[in-house]
Design a protein that fits this description.
Elements (H helix, E strand, L loop, with lengths): L1 E5 L2 E4 L2 E4 L1 E5 L2 E6 L4 H9 L1 E4 L4 E4 L1 E6 L4 E2 L2 E2 L4 H10 L2 E10 L5 H12 L6 E8 L4 H12 L4 E5 L10 H14 L2 E5 L3 H13 L6 H6 L2 H18 L3 E3 L5 H12 L4 E5 L1 H5 L2 H5 L22 H11 L4 E2 L32 H10 L5 H15 L17 E11 L18 E11 L2 E5 L2 E2 L19
Parallel strand pairs: 1-6, 2-7, 8-11, 11-12, 12-13, 13-14, 14-15, 15-16, 16-17
Antiparallel strand pairs: 1-4, 2-3, 4-5, 7-18, 9-10, 18-19, 19-20, 20-21
The protein binds dihydropyrimidine-2,4(1H,3H)-dione and zinc ion (2 copies).
Length: about 475
């Protein structure tokens, strides 16, 4: 069965063109000039998808999600089913989630558990990174095996002592291992040891509100850890990818390393472009708990938002992911009413990444092709999914989004599909909207109706990063 997407403007990482897209089964088979002989003859036997007035984009690739993550005595509230359906509603057709090796456990058994949670439950395609929560001889050996099996990136934490934390020696050993097997080290770059000192002192002073989560996780701790990770990666001769970068000072470190020619990359997330410490983490009562995430939201009195948008333009920030890690206020965020340290860290956003970054196009921060590059093409290349994902070209998976630039709406807990009892972006007015979503040749969202199913999504084995300088 063929499908012809007609009348739209195809947006790629390199430009925008009026092009018809011919899909056969699960794949794109041709890009055709409108009204060309080939297009006219393809139309005779194809199902026609009318994209008039719409942008036609490769499906979004969200390279940073945490479905069902155990954290702080609870679990991230989206399952692989609810989270991937929400992702599809928002124009994301592939997620890369983080399987977690917890301290004292074997990488393999943890990965098997993760696979069991996801397999048969995802509505869109999915892949994994592996969090190495216990760097030792066995887990280092396992990293080599995982790369051969299509898990080609590994997250380490300089934060969360006693939970996910790795010390500098462990980090260096993991980097040396990645240098040998082609894997990419992803770093949560915050000095968790120092943060815990300030957090304990704050609580001792009675500073227990959510706001203090952001106050103690100082930008210096993010930039210091980013700097240290960059130097360790240089010594370890490994490429490095900094996750969820939020502070200007950390971006300066990344920019400097890149200017020196290092294979250092970074992502930011929509929350660091739109939300801030004072208005959101510091919201009245306990509402700030909904904005507790790490790295934290930064002060509106500094220039983090503007600097991050600039980084997205200059490619010192190469990817926008969500770090989707939702918790409900009720019974989850509420665990920390007496002490911000007990608030589970995370914000849900997998559904709104494409829309939120499109607002950057509307506001003149980035171009249309850059939107696609940041949200689909580069994450696919960075994490070895390209060219099956992240691009519309013959041979790529038919993961395609029709985006309506004329639509207007507001984000709300009342219209989102994530399993969260609040929205971090409540009331934010959005220009543009996901209109139609095609996942491997199957229309899963059209006319406001979702028809995707748990289990439609396939596990994707990834190749090595294709993004080295
Ligand atoms: N940061 C979060 O906000 N949540 C989960 C893990 C992390 O690093
Ligand atoms: Zn992290
Ligand atoms: Zn994360």
């Amino acid at each position: 069965m063929t499908m012809l997407i007609k009348g739209g403007t195809v947006i790629s990482a390199t430009g925008a063109t009026a092009t018809e897209v011919l899909v056969d089964g699960e794949e794109v088979v041709a890009l055709l000039s409108p009204d060309s002989d080939l297009a006219v003859s393809a139309a005779e036997s194809a199902e026609i998808i009318d994209a008039t007035g719409k942008y036609v984009l490769p499906g979004g690739v969200d390279a940073h999600t945490h479905m069902e993550l155990p954290f702080g005595g609870t679990y991230a509230s989206d399952t692989f089913e609810s989270g991937t359906k929400a992702a599809a509603w928002g124009g994301t057709t592939t997620i890369v989630d983080f399987a977690v090796q917890s301290h004292g456990r074997q990488v393999r058994e943890c990965l098997d558990e993760w696979m069991a949670k996801a397999e048969g439950n995802c509505a869109i395609d999915f892949a994994f990174h592996m969090i190495i929560g216990d760097v030792n001889d066995a887990s280092l050996k396992e990293m080599d095996i995982l790369v051969d099996e299509g898990i080609t990136s590994f997250k380490l934490f300089m934060a969360y002592p006693g939970v996910f934390y790795s010390d500098d020696g462990q980090i260096l050993r993991a980097m040396q291992t990645a240098a040998g097997n082609g894997g990419l080290i992803m770093m949560h770059a915050e000095n968790g040891i120092a943060i815990d000192v300030l957090a304990e002192q704050a609580v001792a002073r009675g500073e227990t509100d959510p706001l203090y989560h952001g106050i103690v996780r100082r930008a210096e701790f993010e930039s210091e850890a980013t700097h240290r990770a960059i130097k360790l990666a240089k010594v370890g001769a490994a490429p490095l990818y900094i996750v969820h970068l939020s502070a200007s000072e950390a971006l300066t470190e990344v920019t400097r390393a890149r200017n020196d020619g290092a294979n250092v990359f970074a992502e930011t997330c929509p929350q660091y472009l739109y939300l801030n410490l004072e208005d959101h983490l510091g919201a009245p009562g306990f509402a700030g708990a909904g904005y507790v995430c790490s790295t934290p939201l930064r002060s509106k009195h500094e220039h983090h938002h503007a600097d991050l948008w600039k980084g997205l333009r200059t490619n010192d920030l190469s990817v926008v992911s969500t770090d989707h890690c939702p918790f409900c206020m009720k019974e989850q965020k509420e665990l920390g009413t007496e002490d911000f340290r007990a608030i589970p860290n995370g914000i849900g956003g997998v559904e709104h990444r494409m829309d939120l970054i499109y607002q950057g196009v509307v506001q003149g921060e980035i171009s249309l092709p850059r939107w696609v590059e940041l949200c689909a093409t580069t994450p696919a290349r960075m994490f070895g999914l390209y060219p099956k994902k992240g691009v519309i070209q013959p041979g790529s998976d038919a993961d395609i989004v029709l985006y309506d630039p004329a639509a207007r709406w507001s984000i709300s807990v009342d219209n989102h599909h994530m399993n969260m009892d609040y929205s971090a972006y409540e009331g934010l007015e959005i220009e543009g909207k996901v209109d139609t979503v095609i996942s491997r040749g199957r229309v899963v969202l059209a006319d406001g109706e979702f028809s995707g199913n748990a289990g439609d999504g396939r596990y994707v084995r990834r190749g090595l990063t294709q993004y080295l300088m």
